[in-house]
Amino acid sequence: MAILVKPVQRFNPKEPDAPKKWYVTQVTTALVDETQVAMDLADETTLNPSEAMMAIRQLRKILLRRLLGGESVKLGNWGSFSVTISSTGVDAKKDVNARNIKSVNLNFQADEAFKAELQKATFAWVDKLAGDDTKAETPEEENPDDEGESPDPIV
After folding, report:
1. 79 is in which domain, residue-wise?
2. pLDDT band at 128 (very low <50, low <70, confident <90, very high)
3. Which of 16, 71, 98, 150 is deepest in the core (most CB within 10 A)?
4. What is the CATH number of the domain that holds 47?
């Protein structure tokens, strides 16, 4: 399996007058729901689909309970889940209160082993799969320093 990608031209919001540049962007092909994940889990284990669904739901329940209790949760070599908040600033410490909290966010910090596995991704160009080879500019012509990373091989 490959991650589908396509070239997209964008402008830099920090430099609106600068010319647009081409970037490789990932194309999401589907949204897989909890039921499908449970079916996949059942196929890979000795669990039946109902047991797999129950395990996923219980994991969610436990994860939420721990996070709402102020804990971070590390799941093996997947990574760690934690809660972050976004708040508005005030001038004086005495004015800080819960109304300053704008949102509660979920943070996932992938473990190094998980990140290493993601680096093994292969890619396929959407336009080449569809038979459309008419691109204004190929991503190979991009400046690899645009994002501070070197380009990855793309098939």
Report:
1. 3-89+99-146
2. confident
3. 71
4. 4.10.520.10
